[in-house]
Amino acid sequence: MKAFKIFLLLSAAAVWAQSAQNSQQLTRPSAPKAPSHPSVSSPKIGSGFYTPGSGDFYSGVKKPSAPVQNNTSASSGSTNTTAASQATSSQALTQNISTAANITAQDLTKLDSMGLLGNFSSLLSKNSVSSAGTGSDTLLLQQILRELSSIKESVSQVQAPSKPAAASNKASSDAKILRFWVNGYDLLTSFRQVYFSTEESDGSFMLTADRKYQSGNKILSETFYILFKATGNSGGIITYNVSTELVQETKNPSSPVSILASQKNLKASRTGNLVKIVRDDQDFRTNILLSMD
After folding, report:
1. What is the C-alpha separation between 183 and 281, in angstroms, rounded?
2. Euclidean distance between CA atoms 186 and 193, whole angstroms
3. Is the sign of the CA dihedral 150, 153, 156, 158 positive or negative?
4. Which of 54, 152, 164, 243 lies in disulfide reach of 227, CB 3.0 to 4.6 Å?
5. Which residues of 179-207 are buried (b: 16+ CB within 10 A; e: fewer)?
6. How far is CA 102 from CA 95, 107, 122, 151, 158, in A?
7. Which range (111-115, 118-122, 275-279) has the least confidence?
8. Cα(188)–Cα(286) distance, integer angstroms
């Protein structure tokens, strides 16, 4: 009986110990975790390390740029309009010359013989057209041709002769053409009438020539005008800007004279009584020699 009581006490003590242990496990708080550091994004400036000349390196807060007015396009448009207007005026002037300048070397020779070209010097020295460059010299030549055509039209006595004049390589003066080569063609024999204006005090003068030639099965004619505008005299050598105009009955751009007239910045020089134009480019060659005796 006593042994049974001891067994019961031991069993009760074991149950109590087990219960206490379970209770301790249920109530024991867990150890606190270490707090984590807050994650803060650091701001980025530029592209990291500074590199001299780097375009995206931070240079401070940029103020918004003010809207830029498109003055460039307006100015460009104005410039283009002005250039187009000048080109149109120049083209119109040239077209007027082509239709109105119907005066030939033969006409000029006859007008000169009648004493009607005494004011030719005043035409060359007109102050209404500047003679500062090749472009203005071309305008001067066109102006001269308009006025010469006006003289011709105003003189009723000037009529085309019933018979063609004999071929002539001389004008009323003693000046003459000694050589006239363009791109390998000798044009001298095709000239029917040549006229040289009187030389000005600075050496300027104008050459006019009527030409007839065969092209295919056709006989074509043209008149060309070359203005030699003196630009200086150094060591007895006179230099010239050369401007040309051409009038053709039938348009023929392959004519050697037409090719000559299309050239820009032609120059000439005079030594003694000889005036020459020489150019030897890859696509254009000319050798012209005049005697101004």
Report:
1. 10
2. 16
3. positive
4. 243
5. ebbbeeeebbebbbbbbbbbbbebbbbbb
6. 12, 9, 21, 11, 13
7. 118-122
8. 13
Query: Does residue 256 contact residue 244 with C-beta atoms inside 8 Å?
Result: no
User: Which of 26-35, 123-132, 257-266 is predicted most confidently?
Assistant: 257-266
pLDDT for residue 206? 94
Put simply, whether the predicted model's pTM sits higher than 0.70 gets the answer: no
Please list, in sequence order, all residues whose beta carbon lies within 8 angstroms of the beta carbon of residue 219, skipping any fewer than 6 positions away.
212, 213
Check pLDDT > 80 for residue 68. Answer: no
Average pLDDT along the chain: 72
Average pLDDT over every residue of 15-31: 55
Rounded distance between C-alpha atoms, residue 126 and residue 144, angstroms = 9
- Per the rule left: phi > 0, alpha: psi between -120 and 50, beta: everything else, 46 is left
Burial tier of 168 (Cβ tally within 10 Å: 0-12, 13-18, 19+): middle
- Range 105-125 burial, b when 16+ CB lie within 10 A, else e: bbbbbbbbeeebbeebeebbe
Q: Could you give phi then psi for residue 129, rounded to 5 degrees? A: -125, 125
Read off the pLDDT band of 74 (50, 70, 90): very low
